[in-house]
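Today's session is about reading a structure prediction critically. Students often jump straight to the picture, but the first step is always the sequence itself: look for stretches that repeat, for charged clusters, for runs of hydrophobic residues. Only then move on to the predicted structure, which in these notes is written as discrete structure tokens rather than atom positions. Here is the chain we will use throughout the hour.
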Amino acid sequence: MLSRHAESLFWAGRYVERASYITRMLDVASTRQLERSSRSSSDVWRDLLRVLYLDEAFAEANGTDLSSETVSRFLVFDRDNPSSVAASVREARANVMNVRDVVPIELLEAVNRLHSGSTDRSLAQLVQRSPHEIYETVSGLCRTVTGAIDEAMTRDDGYRFLMVGRLLERAEMTCRMIDINRSVSGGDASAWMSVLRSVSGLHAFTRAHGALAPANEVVRFMLHEPSFPFGVLHCLSRVSSLLSEVDGAASWESPRAAGRLAAELQYAEIPSVDDPSLERLLERLEANIRKTSENLHNDLYQFGGAPLMYSFETV
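Below is the predicted structure for this chain, in token form.
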């Protein structure tokens, strides 16, 4: 597979997962701010923008207006915000179109539906009166894309690169989801149940730990549970395995980087929610996930010809 095709598929996967996860984070934050006074609800949105590295960009565009409507418009529909849902979907579609000769028609159709559905003007009109409907609509369209990937793509290198993009983005965003809820909700168990529901993990968690488990168990589950699809350890282990299966990847650094990171996390002690070292652990995980992404880029272009490198902070 051509390196540029591999990277297009990688970033298509990342952008679709990013769009999906931002709506999940918005859904959780929106629920939490409804339970607070207007002043403390602003803190919820401020923390969300902080963990997405968008606090400065938001302030430049919207000043100090941290209302639910303004933040939702910025994170979902603002095309000038390159990390918004609209921008992520646009870039996902562009990357899929770059490789339309190597992906199934079902995936092209699903991405086109995601693009047209997320840019529908009637959807933007729901920002004020029904933001949850926006989040559910976008999440549902993203699940349609992932369904097309699972059902229509052969398990070749193209599939592997697309999945690696999705899994690295998911691992990084799960760290950020934990970070924002740690900051906003602390040890409030009910808030952590909402987080699990947003990542489709409530049923699996309550079966294993019960509905009254403390917040610390939720954090360990989201970081350490190898069978949980949104778990960080699961994502990193899958990335290492998928990259190891790529033709010609025996000398690559990225599979080993992902494997080392998964092993370090597997045997790491997970601090409690109120322990400041949890924040440092999450920051270290995010930094190493980004490093793994850079390693893959370098592996793909080890013989030169590297195009512009993308990252969450700069895109």
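Discussion point for the tutorial: DSSP finds 15 helices and no strands in the chain.
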